[in-house]
Design goal:
The chain is an all-alpha fold. It has 13 helices and 2 strands; from the N terminus they run H-H-H-H-H-H-H-E-E-H-H-H-H-H-H. Strands 1-2 form a two-stranded antiparallel sheet. The longest helix has 31 residues. The chain is globular, with a radius of gyration of 20 Å. The protein starts with 11 loop residues before the first helix and ends in a 22-residue tail after the last helix.
Amino acid sequence: MSSRGAKTYAKPDTGFAWLRMFGAILVVFEHCFPIIEPTRITSLPSSWNISLGYFALMGFFAMSGYQIADSWRRDSSWWRYLLKRVLRIWPPLLFVVMVTAFVIGPLVTVLSPREYWGNPDTWGYVVHNAMLYPLQHLLPGVFTENPYPYSANGSIWTLPMETTGYLIVLVVGLVGGLARGRIVLFPLLLGFMVADGIMGASVGFQGDAGTLFSVPLGSMVAFLVAFVLGMLLHAYRDLIPLRPAVAYALVALYLVANFTPPIEPATRFILPIAAGYGAITWAYHWPRRLEGYDQWVYPSYGMYVWGMPVQQLYTLAGVRDSYLLIVLAVPTAYLCGLVSWRLIERPTQKLRVYLRVPDERRPGDGERAPDPDNEITQVIPAVPPAFPTRPGVGSGG
């Protein structure tokens, strides 16, 4: 691990928390454009083939791979590992889908109460989304008259991909691939990169591989490239230094390649490296002066899962300007995230005290990576293209 300069940089937990909050804000910001104008994928010109949110999402998957791998390193009990993941990702998800189906839905649906409550899709929305596979985006008669009627909360589309990453860590960890057998991560990463090249997912296009239980396989493989890269960076943290100059150079390389036609196809492979290495590096080089405010940036997950329902409600109220929607939705989504953090997430995290591994079993190999279990920063928000698109618009089909 690189030298961190204890007097200069914040603890890595702080860096990861702040980066995730910036990402959640970016999610809400970028979604304000397709919510109002579904043919528009991001806030940037489509000819640029760049989405700030897509870049951030690659970084977030890499951060998750890094931190979740560290969680396994600290405690390789498979059942404790799984219960920690459940306690982190499911309570806020269950809360938002239940409120959407049982409170927001009946208030805004165009159906009669009998039609709404008698429709199996009303109940299926909670059941399917709680299981993550398959996701259900539509509620009967809900937001059907909005400019974007295709999902009540499409932001949750990346949660099954995140969960798949958790399972990858579990399997790799059980076979020793996060310890002495860490070399297996190289063929694993190469395999995902080859599959990504074949499936061809990109900004605004979910690839040619179809879906598995409503999850686009092309996009999932693309993001798991970054996730496995994060696992590899953690496994080889003793050999791979985290240098800001290298991170900035990789971002510059990505931009140059993107706007240089002869080498533009290479951006597919440069992007997860630039975003993933950059995000982890910046987390370890976060300004120390920002320590002490972590409690105000922990609501990033709640802000993420509440962002789109908030945007759809403002749109239903008559907002038809993306920038006005940004002004209204960003602070409202943050407040919803704060409520989620304080009333749902933080209380459920206290249950982890019953899952703690005894101190004498903890590995002691020097500086420890950020603790996603104690600091509650590991869940990844989704960013554009972060919800289903109508046929022929950014979906590849």
